[in-house]
């Protein structure tokens, strides 16, 4: 009898950066103190694989170094004491405590620990219920949402059209100048950038985010913050990654969102699966934006999102395991994805598009700046 495929497993491919790493990446440049509640040594995974900025400038990223005894018997007083003492010495703007698998298995209340730390230090603190069982997308989204909820101040809107760029981290855009290309494309359209969450903006810029007229969500890590800023300050949002050939659509959507005070996802009208022969695997906002850019060049493509997306047009647009991804690729003639997906794309034309949140620094030198051009992909598709 034929062997049935094993579901809910990853045998031939890798996994995305975990949620706690997403927290640290989102907050890296904001002068806070990020603490992963985990065993000693686990922060090396983040610093060596998921954080290219680590080699250029410092950030307060720590680990609680849980021992086996603490995991079994518990010692929350020590955790609060150690973090509070470090914070008193370093004086961060805030303290973010991120959970991992061990405290999740032990039932440790991370938000409660953060409240104790804030009471002890007087420093704004928040605990994020990450558990190491979700991707970076969830962790970064929780972190950005916490910033939007607590640190953005009420202020008057700018007279001219302006935006915050939400969801900008090296996990999705690496650290090779793509964030600069995105900002340049926005500025070229005479749109002022109030802040970018969170690459290249100071904490003071983030605090002034309420003055923006529109939020531009360039990856789903910024979606929850966009919703919170809409609720608190009435700022509409546009969803989309600025990719060559699709940038004009996003700029027009920003203008429309400002005029009509409504949220817009301009890639939605381009996503069709019936006649599509190209599958793009990745984070949903990026993948759907690339599909839209390809569609405008006459190439029908559809996104396959292995992450916990809330934007998927169809349930099948978000897949949860290797078998489900393989099923989604059955009718595709070409697959565009991180090189580590190649083993499940056998028999198909494969175009490598590295994603730092997936393969880390291995293929960083091969990551293209698609904001500038998609010609290399187009040539490979022909």
Overview of the molecule:
This protein has 382 residues and is α/β, with parallel strands linked by helices. The protein is built from 16 helices and 12 strands. A 4-stranded parallel beta sheet has the order 2-1-3-4, with helices on both faces. Helix 4 packs across helix 6 and helix 7 (136-150) runs parallel beside helix 11.
| CATH architecture call of the largest domain | 3-Layer(aba) Sandwich
Strand content: 5-15%
Our count of helices gives: 16
CATH class category label of the largest domain: Alpha Beta
**Can you tell me the residue ranges where pLDDT is under 50 for at least 5 consecutive residues?**
none
Distance between the termini: 41 Å
CATH superfamily of the largest domain: Nitrogenase molybdenum iron protein domain
Can you give the mean pLDDT? 91
What characteristic shape results from the CA principal axes?
globular
What would you call the structural class? Answer: alpha/beta
What is the number of strand segments? Answer: 12
Order of helices and strands: HEHEHHEHHEHEHHEHEHEHEHEHEEHH
Q: Give the total of domains.
A: 3
CATH topology heading of the largest domain: Rossmann fold
Radius of gyration: 21 Å
The strands making up the biggest β-sheet line up spatially as 2-1-3-4
Largest sheet: 4 strands, parallel
Instruction: Specify the helix fraction band.
Output: 25-40%
